[in-house]
Write a structure and sequence with these properties.
With about 550 residues, the protein is of the alpha/beta class. Helices cover about 40% and strands about 15% of the residues. The chain has 20 helices and 13 strands. The strands form two sheets. Strands 1, 2, 3, 4, 5, 6, 7, 8 and 9 form a nine-stranded mixed sheet that branches. The protein has a four-stranded antiparallel sheet with strand order 10-11-12-13. Strand 11 and strand 12 form a beta hairpin. Helix 17 runs parallel beside helix 19 and helix 18 runs parallel beside helix 20. It is globular and about 70 Å long.
Amino acid sequence: MKRACAPRSRPRTRPTPGSRRWLDLLVLLLLAACSRSPLVPPRHVLLLVIDTQRADHLSCYGYHRPTSPALDALAKEGVLFRRAVSQASWTVPSMVSMMTSGYVAEEVMRIPDEKSTLAEVFKVHGWHTGAFICNDLLAPENGFQRGFDTFEWHLEPYKSNQPILDWIHANRKEPTFTYVHLNEVHDPYDPEAHGGKARWRNVKEGLPPERLRTYDEITEKLHLVEKEASLRTIEAEIGGYDDDVAYSDARIREILDAYKSEGLWDSTAVVIAADHGEGLWTRVQFPEGTRKKAMDAGKPATLVNTLQQTHGSQVAIELVHVPLIVRAPGLRPGTVVDARVENVDILPTILELCRLPVPKSAEGTSLLALADDPGEKNGFEEAVFSYTRFNCSVITQDGMQLIHPTPRGECDFALADEIYDLNRDPEARTNLLASRRELVQRLARIADKRVKAGIKGIPVKLTPAQVSRLQSLGYIDAGVVDVISEQLAAESIDELIEGIRKSTDCLVRLQRVRALKDRSLSDEQRAAIRAIAEKEISSAVKEGLEALLSR
């Protein structure tokens, strides 16, 4: 991907001392011209991640409300990547991916020991490293503290920036890498309850006509009720989300202003990113989450409980399209890049900015070539990739998105391939599967290759506090995080195996396979599982059985 400068031919005569100095100077100038990095690397780096931030709800990304004046100003000073995607649609696997520059291919709850992290690279090269996190899922036991001198991960949303400001001041004379993770934009969307302003929550300006047409079609197709009440709720909640975006933007302004007031701005690089987007009732959710709760409770089906509000179980464009803004000394201000890039590219981009070595395990590509020349395409991925347990997404550089079911998605919800032209259909409403079979097959091979090579899930025993936190965020009830039921946990190994053998329900079989994951198997039990695997027709169940036998 790196541009090559043509080497000069070696001189035939020995240069004089004076000519050598000029030759050395010329070589340095040529190297500088060939380098995409700033001539003077930054001494301070801020990676600021906005949890749950949809790119299309920021004014610098074209949103109709002025939600992000601080980020708008930052984008004018730096490079805005219009089409960045996250590698997962919920926080933990997405941040494992971002911090290691590795693609995920299962529900990954912990950073693998063999993967170097961004903070570790900075620390080993003598930088002071600090993390300030408003999301306690990013816990030390999951490896997120690796490489940080200071690691504060219990910070609450809507609170003071003072710990961050104190850190910036205390370390102003030393090179620093600072990671900030804000969480105000996550649901519930209610900054007013925490002393913020409700600028848009109570504004009745109506939903876009094209969205209303979609809601009419869904209401008729699924026989939904209470449409008008649902529309009022959805409009108010989207307004609350936008209020949270503005609240978060004000916090960001204060943090950026601290670098300026300390006299550090000219030597500071800032990267603004997000771990994933948010559903905001854009499309129908799978039969889980609030939809399943409503069905189980016998409640009437409405737009509010049938459409996906939050995130985690799908890879639709609104859930993986995230902001990415890079501002650093030497980068051309006001640059806009249309190429599709990924969060795995953040680590190599930051390290190239700082002229630090990129770990061999990193899978992303530095974006400085695009910052220098937005039309540069050589060396970049043909398609960008995102993953959930149920399906994965591949988006080509020319805007074709394949949503490809995983074996688990086929088993749980009978999902099938879908393909959309995001340039003509930005909300991915019209499935072009019938006319794009050949493209679907080619992109499916890319998706399968990514899944096969990606970071696999690492078993983590969740503490009661973590389970409670995951429940409060909706991840467990929405099926985003697997939790073995008490009933299955109480069954013996032989009972679980017999249940797999007898059941005709794919999901029931898969749940029993999962319940066997941490059990010790005898030779007889292994033989029984092997016999079941030979006849199993579900690829998800078969893979699970084979994984049991490989232990």
